[in-house]
Amino acid sequence: MRRLFQFRGGVLLKEHKRDATAQSVQPATLPKRLVLPLQQHIGEPAEPIVAVGDKVLKGQLIAKPMSFISAPVHASSSGTVVAITEHPVSHPSQLNAVCITIETDGQERWKERQQAVADYHQLPPEKLREMIRDAGIVGMGGAGFPSHVKLNPGQKAVDTLVLNGAECEPYITCDEMLLRERALEIIVGLRIMRYALQAKRCIIGIENNKAAAFHALQEQVRNTGADFIEVVQVPTVYPTGGEKQLIHVLTGKEVPAGGLPLDIGIVCHNVGTAYAVYRAIEFDEPLISRFVTIAGSVARARNLEVLIGTPIIDLIKECGGNPSTLSRVIMGGPMMGIALHDESIPVTKVTNCILVNATISDVPLASKGSFAMPCIRCGNCAVACPVDLLPQQLYWHARAKDFDKVQDYNLFDCIECGCCDYVCPSQIPLVHYFRFAKTEIWAQQQEKILADAARERHEFRELRLERDKREKQERHKAKRAALTANPKTKAGDSKDSAADAKKAAIQAAMKRAQAKREVNNIPPKNIDNLTADQQRKVDEADRRRSDDQAETKVKATPQTTNQANTQSKNSTAQDSSQ
Amino acid sequence: MSLDTTSSPHIHSGIHITGMMMRVCLALVPAIIAYTWFFGWGLIINIVIAITTALCAEAMMLKIRQRPIAPFLTDGSAVVTGLLLAFCIPPLSPWWITVMGAAFAIIVAKQLYGGLGYNPFNPAMVGYVMLLISFPLEMTQWVPPNIVNQLGVSFVDTLNIIFTGNFPYLLSIDALSMATPLDTVKTELGLNVTVTEIVRGNAIFGDFAGIGWEWVSNWILLGGLWLIYKRIITWHIPLALMGSLFVISFFFFMVDPDIYLSPMFHLFGGATILAAFFIATDPVSASTTPWGRIYYGIGIGVFIYVIRTWGSYPDAVAFAVLLMNMAAPTIDYYTQPRVFGHSGKDASIKDTTIKDTTGEGP
Ligand code: SF4
Ligand code: SF4
């Protein structure tokens, strides 16, 4: 029996999980249209490689990543591309984003798939990561971080691979159903991931309210005889499913603030990701479908296997929801989900649940927006906070826009789990304030970076002008010296030779500069007047090159790698434009 | 299509201020009954006067300050202030004492500082201290236990006493009143009488504190424990307050039991229990971090002892609480819990038990 470590705080929530787990998971009806956002992950959006009017096959690559931290998008079904435009997507600030819309032809014709991998142990981990990246797999628990990045330990040794099956939010049951119905596949996926990470052992954490899933998994682990996999039941407390919280519960280790689990030799993936990895490696199937829970006020709450890109309204209708009475639709759970602004928003790779009209009678809904009372400093929020922040102080300073103070109180350790909000007797929308403060601080930092860059540019320009002036003066001086030196022949010999040496040095320098210019002037590649196809291939090669470069860099600092990438992209652009 | 798009979380525990305040009031009901049993109807009448005044003052001030009246009037905080203040006022005090105390508490100590959530001092204690300083005579005319029962002072009689100052059976306030046990000890200790002699020589002393008072304290204790159980308050302040008072009084008691009162007397003799569970735990003016609450409670306990023993006021609860109110922001600043994932020693003593907020709990 593994010793468990409870984190402090958290809340007990009503589960509301029974309805949707009563029946087995069925594929959802094929929608008429699929809307595929180019960014369903953390990182840079993918770039479309199809045009309106193109016919696409199921599983075909339709948008490719342009940097290391990104993920490709594939057609979830066969059909025709009818639009590449802005479309409402699930976003906390209700933005629209570019999506590829496919009109399905109902034939579900697959692209040509590779032979199944006979034994993934034959492949090097890099190859597996590449396959996982090409399959467009991202963290399916909600964050959507590209999985190939998280499966790359770099120089660090991975001790434990934690598979997150906690699923602590009310209503959501898609991981539970996946565990129940695809336990073997998940185990295989987990082993592939373990191999890619070269991890010593694996722990699967499941909340103790999912007995069926736990037993299914345990049986499969026993059958496969994988003694390095441990299936562990953890207490049902929100937010046990948080990555850092689950790691703490299972291992007693705390991921350092601002750090990654990898820093303490742990990597955490979602069970859905393990399943997707299995499909990708064993069947060459990209991530084009996932389990989604449809719950709330629908006649038939359930889990469906949904094609990525399916508009949520189709699913709500399929489960017996009344489209005319929609008032609030949440993508995700009631604690951290996003309230959607449009019913045509599609399911993405990270959509785990669609919660319809969550004004459910037994859950008193915060009368937010109406009237929040002042903070009475009762400290309920601090008791509930799983990361031991003092939300009341954060709130105080965030409201006063004292952004230095909020950072002193560790605003950026807030995981936005909503526990504080949930228990606040004054019904203050605390998380809202925290998000606001974070966004403001980010904006300020961005501004500062820009300002710094501008200042540097300015200073550099000054410097250059100064240098130009100096050089000009020196040239004049040299000329004058030469003129005055000439008439005096013998006496000026030594001086002359000095001037000559100077001249020679200047000339040499100029020659070098000339040579450099010439090199730069030579177009690096004969990439003018290419056909679209050739261009694509060139780009492809470019990307591979830059990816390889990126991959040799330290993985623990994805931000910098990302920046380096964009920088190198920019510089090549400048080069060719010269 | 217009869908509701408030930000997460989308559900709430359903606990709100009014509910918390009402539970605080509910927790005091047994003590009110016990108090009435021993000391007559005075307390109940005072409670009604104090709460009515507090609500009127609150409404008036909200109106003047142009704040929404309904939500603040129904939050229950003024009711609690009135209730606590009434507990601190002698049961047969004239009505205007109570009215002035309650009005001062709400208008000056609460609303002028910005209303709910902004008052640095506990309003009930501010009101009480104002009364104690302004009307020292009226504020020390306490009723001995059981006397109203023995004399058969009825509810109507009590009303008469409070509102018109007319005493039944040609009695007077002097006949009906006396000092509290703590007061008695204080005065007689000044006359070089030993504690043992004082306790033996006065009928008001019971098993370990004053008759009646000790029973009221017991019921307050029970109500307070219920509040902890319902998680309206946390254990930190009551435990720290009573613990520190116990330790320090035990020490001096051991040194010389003739001039220092026993720990039990300190805990149950005065308003200690009320302070520990109901007054010091007022969230707005107390410390808010877990460790901060412990230091805050210890501070009050120490001040209570110091002022009771060497100061000039017999029951020091109000002064101790107000003094620590001043220190609360500083304490909070220096007692921030260690945040998850930050290095440094684990200074957090938060409850690891999880709150049952499903509404299904007891
Ligand atoms: S729970 Fe709400 S009222 Fe209580 S301290 Fe926190 S923010 Fe203030
Ligand atoms: S939302 Fe942030 S501050 Fe609130 S409980 Fe969660 S981590 Fe703590």
Compact summary:
The complex is a heterodimer of chains A (578) and B (362). Chain A has 578 residues and is an alpha/beta fold.
Structure description:
The complex is a heterodimer of chains A (578) and B (362). In chain A, α1 (125-134) crosses α4 (183-197). With 578 residues, chain A is an alpha/beta fold. In chain A, the strands form 4 sheets. A 6-stranded mixed sheet of chain A has the order 1-14-13-17-15-16, with helices on both faces. Chain A has helices at 125-134, 147-150, 174-181, 183-197, 211-224, 243-251, 271-283, 312-318, 380-384, 391-399, 403-408, 419-423, 430-485, 493-521, 532-552, 558-577, and strands spanning 26-27, 33-37, 47-48, 55-56, 61-64, 73-74, 79-88, 96-104, 160-165, 201-207, 229-234, 266-270, 289-296, 302-307, 329-331, 338-339, 353-356. Among the domains of chain A are: 19-30 and 122-359, Rossmann fold, CATH 3.40.50; 368-483, no CATH class. The radius of gyration of chain A is 29 Å and the shape is globular. Helices cover 40% and strands 14% of the residues of chain A. Chain B has 362 residues and is an all-alpha fold. Chain B contains 17 helices and no strands. In chain B, α1 runs parallel beside α4 (77-88). The longest helix of chain B is centred in the first third of the chain and has 23 residues, at 17-39. Chain B is globular, with a radius of gyration of 22 Å. The two termini of chain B are 42 Å apart. Classes of the chains: A alpha/beta (578), B mainly alpha (362). At the A-B interface, β16, α9, α12 and α13 of A face α1 of B. One iron/sulfur cluster is lined by residues 375-381, 391-392, 395, 423-426, 428, 430 of chain A.
